Amino acid sequence: MKELIKSLRMQGQRDPELRPLHPVWRAFLIMLGTVALILGLIGIFVPGLPTTPFLLIASGCYARSSERLYRWLASRSWYRESVGPLIQKRALPLKTKIIALVVGWSMLGYLALFVVEDFALKVLILAVALIKTSVLILLKTAR
Question: Which of 45, 63, 79, 114 is 20 to 30 Å apart from 5, CA to CA?
């Protein structure tokens, strides 16, 4: 049974063991996924705005709420380019990890050092940077 569920997920189909969503919850997930998708698309062109996390959020929302929207998203080349290695191999290329760390630390470091004056907020921003770093280090590196 687990093999069947895994193969269905790999094909982009919904899990047969999941019960149907309430229409309000389904609409909320579709709206959230669409907002995340728009932010992810903007992130392709705007430096500093992350693309991959928003595409992952959109993917998760669509996978749970709308099989049609999930299949549409998964069939896009820019989606597969950005999120494909992470979903298929549960790994990121080394170049992506380095870029994410450099951009993340430079932006969050600048924010903590030069923008925010409250010490508690500086500590919170640096904690977010450390969490981001640890997550990226714990992810496998794709070849």
Answer: 79
pLDDT at residue 114 in the model:
92
pLDDT at 17: 61
Contact 56, 105 (CB under 8 A): no
- DSSP collapsed to 3 states, the chain: CHHHHHHHHHCCCCCCCCCCCCHHHHHHHHHHHHHHHHHHHHHHHCCCCCCHHHHHHHHHHHHHHCHHHHHHHHCCHHHHHHHHHHHHHCEEEHHHHHHHHHHHHHHHHHHHHHHCCCHHHHHHHHHHHHHHHHHHHHCEEEC
**Which residues contact residue 26 at a Cβ distance below 8 angstroms, ignoring those fewer than 6 apart?**
65, 66
Q: What is the pLDDT of residue 31?
A: 97
- What pLDDT does residue 8 have? 43
Q: Which ranges of the chain have pLDDT less than 70?
A: 1-18, 48
Both tokens of 2, joined, read 């687990």
